[in-house]
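User: what does the whole thing look like in 3D?
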Amino acid sequence: EIVLTQSPDFQSVTPKEKVTITCRASRGIASSLHWYQQKPDQSPKLLIKFASQSFSGVPSRFSGSGSGTDFTLTINDLEVEDAATYFCHQTDSFPWTFGQGTRVEIK
Amino acid sequence: QVQLQESGPGLVKPSETLSLTCTVSGGSIINYYWNWIRQPPGRGLEWIGYIYSSGNSNYNPSLKSRLTMSVDTSKNQFSLKLTSVTAADTAVYYCARLRLGEMIPEYWGQGTLVSVSS
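Assistant: Here's the predicted 3D structure for the full assembly of 225 residues, as structure tokens:
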């Protein structure tokens, strides 16, 4: 099973700051890595697919990069509404797995 | 816009069977893959498995011996049954549609909390 390890687990940031979240896979997964945003009591929402492709309707301040084992989600010009937990998810091999999540808090 | 809604008992006794149904509206269940994912309280997400509208399925090996998924195309629903549940199966259960050709969970239900307790 591929283990996805996110860092950091928690980040407290002020509006307009830049946020960088990393996701490391225990073995290479090409670009089959996706990012989700989950707000309290809501279901996850797809932000980025296949490492760097923005999903329809997602603000341009969200971007992704990486391939193989190391991936990054970047949020530029953080807005208050971006307070959430962010998960990475791999669909390269079964069983599909998720990272443990990174909670982003707005100061 | 496709919408998914999970339904089923919110409380199940240990050793019994957890049964959930996901009803799809705003689109057909045919020719898509349908996913189940769960999230224990305060924890991360776990992929349970998926089923195609024809009935072909793929399960997480950690749950495979206890798991059955099915599809009812006449009702536009798909279902999950998990046998011999324990407290470790307490979670919010989500159903989701996989994006055509890309196999990524795209549309999600709101989730339903299932607690396992006597």
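In plain terms: The radius of gyration of chain B is 13 Å. Chain B touches chain A at residues 44-47, 58, 60-62, 94, 96, 99, 102-106, 108-111 (CB under 8 Å).
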